[in-house]
Amino acid sequence: MSAKATSSSTWNQDVLEADGPVLVDFWAEWCGPCRMVAPVLDEIQAENPEKITVLKLNVDENPDLAMKYQITSIPAMKVFQGGEVKTTIIGAKPKFALEQDLAAFIG
């Protein structure tokens, strides 16, 4: 199961009004590390479907949101809960490191 895409038009419904925690992967097509972390995030989503939702946001297609959330380097991941950013993860990491960063949400 791969992460669903979100965009400026669906952001409020997909992210800010979501029931549980939502990890948003800010990425771009040309970003090699983004492509490396994507399958890891898909695995985390598949293993924790009741605990966290993983969404992808293409920063090239949604520059307004990238600017609003101060995305200056990618991959960048932010976990939203209750409409607020709860944690930020910058850079591609191995699965165990991402799981540690997300322990408060999937632990």
Automatic annotation (TrEMBL):
InterPro entries referenced in this protein's UniProt entry, alphabetically: Thioredoxin, Thioredoxin-like_sf, Thioredoxin_CS, Thioredoxin_domain
Gene3D superfamilies: Glutaredoxin
Location of the Thioredoxin domain: 1-107
Gene: trxA_1
Designated name of the protein: Thioredoxin
Alphabetized Pfam families for the sequence: Thioredoxin
Keywords: Disulfide bond, Electron transport, Redox-active center, Transport
Superkingdom classification of source: Bacteria
Organism of origin: Microbacterium binotii
Similarity annotation: Belongs to the thioredoxin family.
Coiled coil start-end: none
